[in-house]
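Q: what does this look like with pterin cytosine dinucleotide bound?
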Amino acid sequence: MNEITPTPAERAEKLKGLGSSRKRVEDVRFTQGKGNYVDDIKLPGMLFGDFVRSPYAHARVVSIDAEAAKQVPGVVAVLTAADLAPLGLHWMPTLAGDKQMVLADGKVLFQGQEVAFVVATDRYAAADAVELVEVDYEELPVVTDPFKALEPDAPVLREDIADQKEGAHGARRHHNHIFTWEQGDREATEKVLAEADVVAEEMIYYHRTHPCPLETCGCVASMDKVNGKLTVWGTFQAPHAVRTVASLISGIAEHNIRIISPDIGGGFGNKVGVYPGYICSIVASIVTGKPVKWVEDRMENLMATAFARDYWMQGKIAATKDGRITGLWCHVTADHGGFDACADPTKFPAGFFNICTGSYDIPVAWLAVDGVYTNKAPGGVAYRCSFRVTEAAYLIERMIEVLAIKLGIDAAELRRKNFIRKDQFPYRSALGWEYDSGDYHTAWDKALAAVGYEDLRAEQADRVESFRRGETRKLMGVGLTFFTEIVGAGPVKNCDILGLGMFDSCEIRIHPTGSAIARLGTISQGQGHATTFAQILASEIGIPADNITIEEGDTDTAPYGLGTYGSRSTPVAGAATAMAGRKIRAKAQMIAAYLLEVHDDDVEWDVDRFVVKGAPERFKAMAEIAFAAYNQAIPGIEPGLEAVSYYDPPNMTYPFGAYVCVVDVDVDTGQVDIRRFYALDDCGTRINPMIIEGQVHGGLTEALAIAMGQEIAYDELGNVKTGTLMDFFVPTAWETPHYETDWTTTPSPHHPIGAKGVGESPNVGGVPCFSNAVNDAFRAFGHVHAHMPHDHWRVWKIAHDLGLHG
Ligand code: MCN
Ligand code: CUM
């Protein structure tokens, strides 16, 4: 038989499908200044909004005098709660089932809270007028400590619900208490703890931090009073959900609302929430009949939009003498700030924190999370976190280290001993998850071999000896982490946001000449969806990725989807893309069979064509099939070649990773040098290795930031001490170390192409790894645990408290 040229492998390579390190198609625009961000949108007659914000963390608003502000030339309106109240818009629902003031209604609950909204013809006029709005405040006692907030005589923060005994997630036991969320078997766990050979206990605090994306949050709202249509361009990570919520809140019919997320300059979870700025801009546009733009500045972003973490986690872990873990107990005090505006699936008020048994086969566990109001900004969850998985991974990966110290067992060995084994998958955890697939031992051994683990420990021991002899002032730390992620929310049966099931979607249209457009319910904020989703399709339908346009973020054109966060795009929308592709292929098969004059079953798929079985020289390539779909009357087949898939995943995906970090710590300055960082990620089938590597680099750098210095800190009066980039650490190329990336591939058994998410993994695994490295450096001197962030001062303090400064 003649050899068919080009070969299937050559044809596959041309497609740039799965596994190709295809260059990011977005970058052609981005690197040439052709990105189109919210602030690039300029409409005729557009007005600008700016907020008057509270300087106090807790105060009564006695009066607001906007007369002087209104005299500023160009000022069109000054909105206060009193103006929004008749519309029922002075409060808005939060994603967590709570409600939040849009503009201060009688009191303020955190510094930076929105008090009044000034609208002017010019951004500068709006800012000038903000200065002239006179607000008379009466200060109230401030609570920034969640434990103090729960004391019996703590000030009442939320007067609107002070007497309400039931919250969105069950009973409230104190006026500042939001919910208690309990999982697992308390009795069995406490019995195991009581009878255990060894119990390690620690209070692990994951400090308050902030995603701080390069582009802050903002929108342009434009109400067209003639056709009754409201269009809002905004930095939205979930445009369809915003449309539905906007319709429900405003009463505007949903078909008359169009939400557009243009290019987004980083989201990291910060752009999931609904902020007062959006509501005020929409109202202002309706009132004035003009488009209204609102874009917050850096300080506003850091002070008032969704923060992350602020979790006080008390952990207890039980084990046998030889290091077999027998139980995990955890109680979390979760500081949610002034309103519970956390972004989690409805049934999970603490997100997927119950993944806190991690990668280990732990027979029993119990977990309770208490949500608490304080005088801090609302939000929570955001920041590359997969719904509190970051906190969960930090807890278990610190607790393993604490246990290893207590047992006197090597921490790598302790992990290996307790890993869920390959043959145990699918594995049901004590706190209720079903892990889809994993091969932890293989990944761990590969990671330890790659870094030369034994040698590192030997070197570390030598270093301690040299230190004791006074030959060096630098200690060496080896940070280990093995994490299991849970991404891809989620099965509609247990995951929804405000009642909207968390499926996702893809709609494909093949053009007559064999190129295509696919639209998805997700929205890229830098993840490279236009590049990678085209690759999934290229492999499914045999059209080169370069000939496929990917479009997201316009609710008038994209199919309904729940958006991009929780690394759900690949697990959910990626699956929808593959499934829609398969529908295209099924129809293409019928067309090909017709053209080849054989039965449907007599043709088979071969990379980019259907071939007659046993006669590969007889084929119809996808381009030819596409044209036929539009030019031939085929009996029993509609013209055209389009498909849509709404995909409800049967389960989440469980990516995992093995990270090792080596640091040198200067005992006298507290300076930590990252000598080496090795990251092995397993995200199942890899769509684009180069993009994965980019995601890992970015996530690790954010992890470095969080672990080593980034913090939203408050003083006792509730003043934000780190509200500018002077104080809030954002690493530059200078601080960022070299990363060594690696992988194993354990496909997800339920995902159509076996892919798991990866976007959040490096942050989930990175934070504990950096932190473990710093803590480990002092282990030889009796040190067990110190709170993050490990800035120079705190590291110096560890050394000081251990008496290492002589
Ligand atoms: N990918 C791949 N192969 C896989 C898994 C993923 O090639 N097996 C690719 C995807 O096709 C996609 C990227 O990696 O191009 C990330 O995919 P995924 O893990 O599905 O995550 P999402 O696309 O849903 O992105 C969300 C995730 C989250 S929740 C945060 S927070 C975060 C992150 O992505 N925010 C980011 N990475 C970010 N990267 C940038 N540049 N900007 C942000 O705001
Ligand atoms: Cu939790 S940050 Mo991401 O889910 O957008």
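Residues 84 and 90 are 5 Å apart (CA to CA). Residues 308-488+652-801 form a domain with the Aldehyde Oxidoreductase; domain 4 fold (CATH 3.30.365.10).
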